[in-house]
Amino acid sequence: MQTHFQKTRRALAASPAIALVAGAIALVVLQPVPAEAQGFGVRAGAVSGENGTIAGSRSVMSNGQGGGAVRRNFAVGDGQGNGTAWSGICAANINAAGCSGRAATWSADGSFSGVAGTEIAGENGFFSGNRTLDRDPDGSWSGSSAVEASGQNGSYNGSASFNDGTYSRGAVYSGADGQSATVEGTYEIGSGGSRIVTCIDASGAMVECP
User: What pLDDT band is residue 95 in, cutting at 50, 70 and 90?
Assistant: First the structure.
């Protein structure tokens, strides 16, 4: 468990969306809600004027059995078509803890940038997922994603990206007995794509993929 939680904290610092709610994981995991405390609380507010709008909310929950969750949301707009928003939640119980967050900014020129991430660590394994999405003022989209997971049966690492109609993906699965499978693929709109899968058995020999 200690290894998983250390890994989670390193990932939190690397993910902008998760970093927005890193304070909440400290509250929920490092300072657990007392088991005898049980309840739910919400605070919300908004201000609107000539210069834009600000809105936010937060909620805290405890199940009275050593688990709890914290959620926060925030949005700002300047009234001129520009703004930013983010939301995040962290939750924990006796056996696992995790955070999920997302953030986005947009501008009056039509550009957009978003990021999202999820981190979960528990006695059965670890999961980390991050993704981005961007739009230029000219309407071009690009983005990326990455997933890492590990457990008793092995591990998985995968990533993908797209830009101006070109998509690429790579993934590696490693089994608990030493076997592995690697996937590499590309695709381009109007031209098609390709995909290569390589499988290795537990002895290190290349074999036909199932």
Answer: confident
